[in-house]
Amino acid sequence: MTTILPSVAVLEMTYRCNHACRFCSCPWFAGMLKPEPEMEIGEWKRLIEAYSAAGVTQFSFTGGEALLKDGCLELMDFASKRASLRRPRDTSARSAARVTPYSARTRHPTTECD
Fold first, then answer.
1. What is the CATH number of the domain that holds 98?
2. Residue 16 is part of which domain span?
3. Would you place residue 23 in the very low, low, confident or very high pLDDT band (cuts 50, 70, 90)?
4. What is the mean pLDDT of residues 31-53?
5. Which end of the chain, C or N, has fewer beta carbons within 10 A?
6. Is 51 helix (H, G, I), strand (E, B) or coil?
7. Is the pTM of this model over 0.70?
8. Which of 63, 71, 82 is nearest to 19 (CA)?
9. Residue 86 · residue 60 · CB < 8 Å
């Protein structure tokens, strides 16, 4: 399949974060953007389906703190059945305990979050 999309999609799950890092690059924390309402899980699933159908082969979940989004682990599982996943780029260790059950049952080694 020919596609104009990149092979990797970075999905910003939430604006919420449990840190206040001085070096944060999120534009909504710097006052450069006003956060829009967050997408619901069903909307994310439809987006993942559409991207997968268009040739995206990898998904990376980020945010804020992606693991603070209710349903994030469900979405990771959903996406892993359609493509491979990348480790969250900027997840904090404070949320790592939520990932352990998911990581232990995954079929993709790259889905482990640390």
1. 3.20.20.70
2. 8-111
3. confident
4. 89
5. N
6. helix
7. no
8. 63
9. yes
